[in-house]
Write a structure and sequence with these properties.
The chain has about 425 residues and is of the alpha+beta class. Helix content is about 25%, strand content about 25%. The chain has 2 domains: about 1-10 and about 25-70 and about 175-250 and about 350-415, FAD/NAD(P)-binding domain; about 115-170 and about 250-340, D-Amino Acid Oxidase, Chain A, domain 2, CATH 3.30.9.
Length: about 425
């Protein structure tokens, strides 16, 4: 997995004006001759495009529909401090907390740092609290136990019958603006973005990928695009994309339902203080309140429907956390499909929420990389991990700088002229 490998070292600058060029400078010139094709225009593809473009590689992103029209545009937008995962996996929790700090620095306009309360409703929750607090502390997540009285001062909308609450640095992500910030910055750096272009084939010979076949729905034409590296960032559709290269990819598409009601019924993220389950998170988004989610698994992420029973169950759970849900006006219900790493015969909650970067050289497709799992909070880290693997594969000693480089505003995506597509 690329995410566990150390980052490539930064190269030293020339000691004097007449010194020989640093190896890093030579690598950056060579990087412009390497074409990377990225399949998938959601948050993951956006972050990968940004990181690789910043390192100087020539990149084209292909999306079969509109940008963020898959899972990215359908999640409830929680900025995870990692507290939800701390008891089960401190590594994931620690990574979430680190990425929250980075996103606040590089993409503040897409973040509402409203913090979160995990509230205990019964004896089981009270018994769970000590393990939760200990796991958060071990993961580097600030946490503070509050009496019900103190918690209600912070969040008047929470259930006043709660036994106590634990405050953590959760927040809210604008699920549309954050990817646009990555995409705008990448395009300003020279990346090409092609929407309504579906990848219908991945070409390989002698055990290495050489390009893509793309159906451009605007022109109605099929095109053959040469590529030195292909990144499969298609989320729950990643298995189908890998199959285009004759590669099997272990992935579980796991849908989950979310329900929004009208009105901002809470200002903080409100979660149930217990092991992760259905309907135990409420996220305020502008003037809506969203409760999520459920989870099951499917074979085809294009063939999902929102189960009516899910809506009723989620609203019942929401009322336990924020009683005002009982009288709130229904706004919408929808389903998003998580791209969980691995396969399961169960519902999927037993699978890790971590991400994997998989190199397919051993599958006879060197130069093809797939990324599975993950969550919106760690998009930047996912992009960095993929870019590190691509640089190792292409023998480029170019370190990433995305953790320290502020992103352009999301509006710049619309203000800047789209690059004219040129043959690649």
């Amino acid at each position: 997995m690329g995410r566990d490998a150390p980052a490539a070292p930064r190269m030293a600058a020339p000691a004097a004006a007449h010194a020989a060029p640093a190896v890093g400078d030579a690598d950056r010139r060579r990087a412009r001759d390497i074409h990377v094709a990225i399949v998938g225009g959601g948050g993951t593809g956006a972050a990968i495009l940004h990181d690789l473009t910043q390192r100087g590689l020539r990149c084209t992103l292909f999306e079969r529909g509109e940008l963020t029209s898959g899972t990215t545009g359908r999640h409830h937008g929680q900025l995870h401090s990692g507290a939800r995962y701390a008891v089960g996996d401190t590594d994931i929790a620690r990574e979430c907390m680190e990425e929250v700090t980075i996103l606040r620095r590089i993409a503040a306009e897409s973040i509402e740092m409203n913090y979160g309360l995990f509230i205990a409703l019964d004896d089981d929750d009270v018994d769970y609290t000590a393990a939760f607090e200990r796991a958060c502390s071990e993961s580097g997540i600030p946490n503070r136990r509050l009496s019900t009285t103190d918690a209600l001062r912070h969040e008047p909308g929470m259930n006043p019958n709660a036994r106590h609450a634990v405050m953590v640095p959760d927040g809210t992500i604008d699920a549309y603006r954050l990817p646009l910030q990555f995409l705008a910055t990448a395009r300003a750096g020279g990346a090409t973005i092609r929407t309504f272009c579906e990848v219908t084939g991945i070409d390989s010979s002698d055990g290495r990928v050489s390009g893509l076949t793309v159906r451009d729905y605007r022109s109605g034409r099929d095109e053959r695009i040469a590529a030195d590296v292909v990144i499969n960032a298609a989320g729950p559709w990643a298995g189908s994309v890998a199959a285009l290269a004759g590669v099997g990819l272990p992935i579980t598409p796991a849908p989950g339902t979310m329900v929004a009601v009208k009105g901002r019924l809470c200002n903080m993220v409100v979660s149930h203080l217990h092991p992760p389950g259905d309907g135990d998170i409420i996220v305020p988004q502008r003037n809506l309140s969203i409760v999520g989610s459920t989870q099951w698994k499917v074979d085809d992420p294009d063939a999902i429907r929102t189960p009516p029973d899910d809506i009723l169950r989620l609203l019942d759970r929401a009322r336990e956390l924020v009683p005002a849900f009982a009288g709130a006006e229904f706004h919408a219900a929808w389903t998003a499909v998580r791209p969980l790493s691995g396969r399961t015969d169960a519902g999927g909650r037993e699978l890790s929420r971590n991400f994997q970067v998989i190199a397919h050289a051993s599958d006879g497709a060197a130069g093809l990389f797939s990324v599975t799992g993950g969550k919106a909070t760690v998009l930047r880290a996912m992009g960095e991990a993929v870019a590190d693997d691509v640089c190792r594969f292409t023998s480029l000693a170019i370190a990433g700088r995305t953790a320290d480089t502020p992103l352009l505003a999301h509006r710049e995506f619309f203000r800047r002229q789209e690059r004219v597509h040129e043959p690649v």
